[in-house]
Amino acid sequence: xxxxxxxxxxxxxxxxxxxxxxxIDMVFxxxxxxxxxTTFASEEAGIDLxxxxxxxxxxxxxxxxxxxxxxxxxxxxxxxxxxxELGDVLAQAGDGPSWEVRADRQADYEAxxxxxxxxxxxxxxDVVLSVDPR
Length: 134
What we know:
- The chain is α/β, with parallel strands linked by helices.
- It is built from 4 helices and 7 strands.
- It has 2 domains: 2-42; 53-133, Nucleotidyltransferase, domain 5, CATH 3.30.420.
- The chain has helices spanning 2-13, 20-42, 83-93, 109-121; strands at 53-54, 63-68, 74-76, 79-81, 98-103, 127-129, 132-133.
């Protein structure tokens, strides 16, 4: 019984404390982390393309992006697709934002025409060809 009283007294005398310095440090680290990752996420990540340049290029808001690499491989949402698979995706896409075709400046012309043909077959007429504005 005496042991139980002694333990209950020692627990009541201890108070929970918060280490404010460590908490503030963690908040700043999280803030820095999200600031850096947001900056990198805003750039097109995953597919390395060198777009052709044009002086009349301008930014377009909210576009669905189809990328064509220099070897002719096609990507939609960072996922590799064949031309046939792209046709299936486009057929299911329905109405929405415009489509942006981002082709590497050294991409095979036939691959670009294949993507544009699939867009036309799927009746997706609102298409933008992306360039590097200079």
